[in-house]
Amino acid sequence: MDNSQTDRGASQEFVMTLLAIFGRQHGRPLWSGGLVRLLNEAGYSTLAARAALNRLVGRDLLERVRQGRLVSYDITPRCAELLAEGDRRLFTLGDHTEWDGTWTTVWHALPESQSLERNRLARRLRFLGFRPVQDSIWLSPNTRDREVHSVAVSIGVADQIGVLVGTSPADLPIDHLAERTWDVQGLCAQYEQFAAEYADSPPDTPNAPATDKDAFLIRARAAYDFRQFAFLDPEVPDRLLPNPSARRAAAEAFRRVMTELERPARRHFDNVMSGSATSGNRRD
Fold first, then answer.
1. Which of 116, 202, 216, 250 has its CA 20 to 30 Å from the CA of residue 225?
2. Is the Cβ–Cβ distance between 64 and 73 less than 8 Å?
3. Residue-wise pLDDT tens digits, 191-227
4. Is domain 102-167 in CATH 3.30.1360.120, yes or no?
5. Domain over 3-81 is classified CATH 3.40.50.300
6. Distance between CA 47 and CA 30 in Å, rounded?
7. What is the helix (H) or strand (E) element at residue 98, kind and residue range?
8. What is the pairing mode between strands 70-75 and 30-31?
9. Dist CA 240 CA 47 (whole Å)
């Protein structure tokens, strides 16, 4: 993992990735020392790891639980909602290849005094594939009114936004609009890079992980990297992409890694959480 991923935002994102693909299934509170160790293994400093956990508590995404002298964390209802939203987004990327010409436009009237709500709304809209076309006006080439309504209710701004779903005029240059709003060339290049990096990660390949720890790191990093596409890809229809096969290849690589490395990766996560992991545990 490069040094840029050790910043404050990236460490919080990586914790959220761990919660999404391991934490919810763990079945009990997550030991703080185990989470710090896992972040250390992924390249984050102890200071960055502990700061990320504290900030997630401050954002109402984690809740501290004291068990004797040990500190653990539980996932809050707000966090569970965000993780479920992430599942719906990530595991369907690449499925919607056809397009009926429908756009969703969102506008809001949130003043600067509501900066927290503005920032939360902007982040959630970006995760759904929206992009701002003017200040306070966001656009998506999909039918997203239900998701937007759910987001607005959860943030508490449902009475301060408007949503319009409709089709564009027949003579509007859609290809040009998509290229101006989203970097479709860069998006395809990143999909190609992801597919190439993770194509040989599952078992029974020349680059198969040798230990449970290796499997954990590959699976966690793949999920973290693929999660970034939710902010980059509005699920532009295939006909508007210069290389639509790149998205399909990346999605297939992601799902394969998630499935085929699940057992050894989860075994390492659970062992670290219990304090029983060793660095040389071999995959079976």
1. 116
2. yes
3. 999 999 998 766 655 456 779 999 999 999 999 999 9
4. no
5. no
6. 18
7. none
8. antiparallel
9. 44
Neighbours of 129 (CB within 10 A): 25
Orientation angle between helical segments 115-127 and 77-90, nearest 10 degrees = 30
* DSSP for residue 114: G
Domain boundaries, the chain: 3-81, 102-167, 178-262
Q: Specify the DSSP element, H or E, that contains 30.
A: strand 30-31
Which amino acid, one-letter code, is at 260? E
pLDDT surpassing 60 at residue 281? no
Compute φ and ψ for 122, nearest 5 degrees: -60, -45
Residue type, 31: W
State how far the alpha carbon of 242 is from the alpha carbons of 178, 193, 239, 246, in Å.
Answer: 12, 15, 8, 9
Q: pTM for this one?
A: 0.80
